[in-house]
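Figure 2 data, in text form.
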Amino acid sequence: MRAARLAQGDASAFAELDLERTARRGFPEAVYCAGKTAAQVGAIAAAVAERPDVTTLFSRADDDHAAAVLAALPDAAHDPAARLLAWPPQPPAPTGGLVVVLAAGTSDLPVAREAHLTARYLGRPSELVVDVGVAGLHRVLSKLELLRRARVAVVAAGMDGALPSVVAGLVSAPVIGLPTSVGYGAAFGGVAALLTMLNACAPGVSVVNIDNGYGAGHLAAQIAAPEPSR
């Protein structure tokens, strides 16, 4: 039976989609494409096509995954740099507090874009600030007016990973450190940035996994959610 469903491209042969997660948790399920075949991702996309009321994000999608999603959902939004697709293509009307996402350098931008788009598709107003690393502190200082309007800041940085501490020392909002795998050999694929962020001396810094833009954007969206009505 399962083999027959698999042959027919039926997603239930290999996945059990949690399409009621929004009602249960307030945020929808996302599809992590890495490790899945293009055929599996395409079958999942075909299944969610029947639920346009549910925002679906496809993260870590390579070219083949993206082609499979777009074959089933031709109007899906696709950001190749962030390796993210979203359907329906338009984000919901923003509510709640402002999420500001900072990329220390241009090399950190793909992961920062993943966080930024995740926050937007989960319903938060979000601004992306690029190339404001600690090698030129005047750049982040020039963004203070925006940063101080944020309910939460996500800071993506590789190399020494120092930018979250700098930002946390300048604003009252919580800061989510997003270490990236950018850097030379002793950066150890982002481990150096991760350890720097975990040892931040400025209070109010939380840290997600290396290159986990989706996780950072999701957490930011939760922190910046509207106050529940009483």
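Caption note: The two ends are 49 Å apart (CA to CA).
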